[in-house]
Design a protein that fits this description.
It is a single chain. This protein is an alpha/beta fold. The protein has helices at 19-26, 44-48, 67-75, 86-99; strands at residues 3-8, 56-61, 100-110, 122-131, 139-146. Strands 1-4-5-3-2 form a five-stranded mixed β-sheet. The relative contact order is 0.22.
């Protein structure tokens, strides 16, 4: 059964500094891999390629939430991202699934709770909805655990 909570906090472009999200991340007591450091100075796939298969306890998947944001984030740092289509999110999710060890965790942040998904060997354990009020979109935090070593 999936556990679900809702919290309220002021919005912040630095997702991990939002108190309910900080608390969620800290509650695991593990070292996290963040393939999307701010500012976006490196391609996430290059970052993830440094890790061996099934070697990481946890990944924070906090990419730009839309193709427009993706383009703006990378271009503002002088980078040209070759792909802003939905296929780039698929590539990132496959790479994350590759490096997380069985029993490891991925927390995905965004405007949906799709996460990495069962087809990559993950099951959702917990969803935290962080409301920001006004005209701000909520931030959805999806906690998934890798339960299967193989990706179909």
């Amino acid at each position: 059964m999936i556990k679900f909570d809702r919290a309220w906090a002021m919005p912040n472009k630095n997702t991990f500094s939002i108190p309910p999200i900080t608390n969620l991340i800290d509650s695991f007591g593990i070292s996290w891999v963040d393939p999307f450091p701010d500012p976006y100075k490196e391609d996430a796939l290059l970052c993830l390629s440094r890790y061996q298969r099934n070697s990481v306890n946890g990944v924070l998947f906090d990419p730009p939430y839309s193709p427009r944001q993706l383009k703006e984030c990378y271009e503002s740092n002088g980078m040209c991202l070759h792909d802003t289509k939905s296929s780039v999110w698929k590539e990132w999710k496959n790479a994350i699934a590759h490096v997380i060890k069985p029993g490891g965790v991925c927390i995905s942040f965004g405007w949906s709770t799709n996460g990495l998904g069962k087809n990559r060997g993950f099951e959702i354990e917990y969803i935290l909805l962080v409301a920001h009020g006004g005209n701000h979109n909520d931030t959805l935090c999806t906690v998934e655990r890798k339960v299967n070593r193989s990706i179909t």
